[in-house]
Amino acid sequence: MSSNVIDAPRSNSAESPKYKRSKGSGSSFEMFAWLFMRLSGVVLIVLIFGHLFVNLMLGDGIHAIDFGFVAGKWSNPFWQFWDLAMLWLAMLHGTNGVRTIINDYAERSGTRITLKTVLFVASAVIIVLGTLVIFTFDPCPAGAVVDLPSFCPVP
Amino acid sequence: MPTKPAGTLYRGREGMWSWVGHRITGVVIFVFLLVHVLDTSLVRVSPEAYTAVIGAYKNPIMGLGEAALVAAIVFHAFNGLRIIAIDFWKKGPKYQRQLLWGVLALWAVTMIPFLIRHLTIVFSNFFGGH
């Protein structure tokens, strides 16, 4: 029977005996990333459970979600900042989680750098897009004919 | 007769499977989050575009998908609290197995009322017509 010993993560393995991962930079970045996952996780439980309860459980649930529903929420700064905090914390939490998974499984340096570049670019685009949408949103756009919230002036 | 492997860091049972579950649910939630920000961004295109895309979600297949997504989120949330307990509570590592059964119990207690409410909305609106 071959060895049943499982190597420590990110160390030389039988499949890649010449595998050498360079040592860490010595900065405390990884410690802050570890702490951030725990702190943001606790806050995200409150933000996401609240988000799911209001959007899926109250009223007519998912059936009631349309443009007017979103416009009604984002006409209130409370929900704008709720959703902004949720967007940033969830994206940073998820990006750091996927970064960890890439570091665990992509053994070649080139693969790791490529995957993490794609990840960081995608995350940055989504965070910037979401932030712009929350704060440049117009609940009563001119020319719209359906689904406007009731507080919009009748054209 | 296979013997118990020596030198195993972390194999099988509650510890490993909760770790696997946390990773898989985490990736699933992250992929959904990317799509969710993109579809919500359609409110900036036009009310008609947003309502049309959201309307495509309002069928029983997507309703079941939403239920699976919430199941993944609730597991990830409660198991995340378990990880924090293991990291910061002195007796956390000793009780990590019992904590996982607590996570699964809380998960069931949360999911049952959620599923009753959500699936009632999804199926009554679909089969009951508008």
Tally the helices of chain A: 4
- On the 0 to 100 scale, the average pLDDT of chain B is 88
- Strands of chain B, total number: 0
- Mind describing the biggest β-sheet of chain A? none
Helix and strand content put the structural class of chain A at mainly alpha
Q: What is the CA-CA span between the terminal residues of chain B?
A: 63 Å
The amount of helix of chain A comes to: 55-70%
Biggest interface goes to: A-B, 47 and 47 residues
Contiguous runs where pLDDT drops below 50 for at least 5 residues of chain A? none
Let me know the largest β-sheet of chain B. none
- Average of the residue pLDDT scores of chain A: 85
Rg over C-alpha atoms of chain A, rounded to the nearest angstrom = 22 Å
Q: Tell me the CATH topology of the domain at 29-136 in chain A.
A: 3 helical TM bundles of succinate and fumarate reductases
Number of helical regions of chain B: 4
What string gives the helices and strands of chain A in order? HHHH
**Helix amount of chain B:** over 70%
Strand content of chain B: under 5%
CATH architecture of the domain at 29-136 in chain A: Up-down Bundle
